[in-house]
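Lab notes, practical 5.
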Amino acid sequence: MHSSVPNHDGLDQATALRPRRRWLIGALSLGLLVTIAAWATNAKAQTQAQPASAVKLYIFDLGQLKSANPQPLLDRGVTVTDMSVVAYLIVHPRGTLLWDSGTIPDELVKPEGTTVARATVKKTLAGQLAEIGYKPADITYMALSHYHYDHSANANAFAGSTWLVQRPERAAMFPEAPPANPIDPNVSAKFAALKTGKTMLLDGDHDVFGDGSVVIVSTPGHTPGHQSLFVKLAKFGPLVLSGDLYHYPSERTLKDFLPFGGRGNDAQEAASKAKVEALLKDKGATLWIQHDIVADAKLKKSPAYYD
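Output from the prediction step:
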């Protein structure tokens, strides 16, 4: 039978050891909490965007669109008439540029996906930005290829960025006098916050970061101030993001093929296409047609990137 041996204070050994055990358990618990906190801090740091040492380009999947009138496309040999919807983040040592902002506002996108009219979206723009460590407030510049609904749905979220816009485009978006053909109020509401935000009006091509690596190319026609984007990547090489200068590859080979002609200025659009074709040849650049769902499916999406 076990018997406790009193110590010099009259306490048995088991009683005397209890404070030490409590201290030891407390110390171990504190150490565990410190370890967990350090791990959480490190994990958070890993998801925060780090300053870029070279130009990177991320592609965000923002769904797809059904064609409103597929028959003329099918008649001209376009076998896939659905269109991809994308946005891009260009990360540069001097800042960031978001190019386009999707077709359905993030707040309407449900986890299982959302369909509105001809558009279906499964991922939010903000969620894809957060996955690589960015918030809308972190974006230095925001540019829309043009104001149409499938490119401007989340524009208001970037009203704190500097908006890079061609002067005629802003005039069409925020006219001083009521226009003959007003923009759908459901569309204009989604970029309304840009009206009072920080804005840089452009009158032609614009070198975003001042080193020739990211250049907005004025390509009017589809809209009064439509623009495309030239990006020079060290490994991938130079490329051009089309905006809606083209929608399908067939438009490059069938010179009289303007599936969306009549919405803008066809003569201007033809001149803009000639300008971009010359740029592609001069720079040895690749053209990414933003709505080309077949080609887009082969490109890696964020969090992967091109550099």
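Observations recorded by the TA: The CA atoms of residues 161 and 258 lie 34 Å apart. Residues 13-47 form the longest helix (35 residues).
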